[in-house]
Design goal:
It is a single chain. The chain has two domains: about 70 residues, no CATH class; about 160 residues, Zincin-like (2-Layer Sandwich), CATH 3.30.2010.10. It has six helices and twelve strands. α4 crosses α5. It is flat and about 60 Å long.
């Protein structure tokens, strides 16, 4: 199904769900329009519902595009919550590299073949490795502080989550959190660790989170306001899922 937007035809994916009661339209961080409807809904009903939302859909897509244009990782990048200028330098070496010049708040990408795709792939790989190395240490620190042990921590390419916690004793973190401020990173780690004790968002859960992170409400709001960061580096190679270099053992 396609939608007749002012900017042109917009593809729309339709999903029918057994237990759904109403027609719902959502737009992913990649700008994909997904319409879900109860089983048995007719195409006439679906088209009518979509037609009523055309202005909202177009406005939301434009807002996303503007947000990503303002967050071009090859011009400016956030690392640990700090804004860095990204500079691209020539190189005679086949293998490129990324160099952090902390003193000048600059990230330098050295690469011979400097197409946007190759630059983004190199930068994404560097960020993922940096995330794995640094965040593994923070997880180890917070397992000691909280006394909550886990089996493994995974760093994933999640589309809609900053992190998750499983009943198997594992937690997963979106590698993009290397871009956010350290206090917010710590909150996310604490949040997922506490889910190993309370697999819900009950009063007991938030009380325990608050005992280690008193500003959790502010950090949670920050994540909601800056969720657009989860859309960066999409389509830059296959999604990756890395286990930690050192699995955390149960004590």
């Amino acid at each position: 199904m396609t939608l007749p937007l002012k900017r042109g035809k917009q593809p729309c994916t339709i999903i029918f769900r057994k237990n759904q009661k109403y027609i719902n339209i959502r737009i992913t961080r990649e700008g994909q329009v997904i319409l879900s409807a109860p089983r048995g809904t007719t195409m006439k009903e679906i088209e009518a519902a979509a037609s009523r939302k055309l202005n909202w859909i177009e406005g939301h897509i434009l807002k996303l595009e503007k947000g990503y244009a303002d967050l071009d990782p090859l011009k400016q990048l956030f690392l640990m919550g700090k804004s860095l200028t990204v500079a691209i330098a020539p190189s005679n070496k086949k293998r490129g590299r990324v160099v952090l010049d902390a003193a000048n708040e600059t990230l330098i990408i050295e690469l011979k073949h400097r197409s946007r795709v190759t630059l983004m792939l190199l930068l994404k790989g560097w960020l993922e490795k940096t995330a794995r190395r640094y965040l593994q240490e923070r997880v180890s620190y917070w397992t000691r502080e909280t006394g909550i042990s886990i089996n493994r921590v995974f760093f994933r390419n999640q589309h809609t989550r900053w992190g998750s916690s499983s009943g198997r004793g594992n937690i997963s973190l979106n590698w993009r959190i290397i871009m956010i401020p350290p206090p917010v990173q710590d909150y996310l780690i604490i949040h997922e660790l506490v889910h190993q004790v309370h697999m819900n968002h009950s009063h007991k859960f938030w009380k325990k989170v608050g005992s280690y992170c008193s500003e959790y409400r502010e950090h949670d709001n920050w994540l909601k306001k800056n969720s657009i960061l989860m859309g960066l580096f999409r389509g830059q190679g296959p999604a990756s899922s890395y286990p930690s270099e050192e699995a955390l053992k149960r004590r």
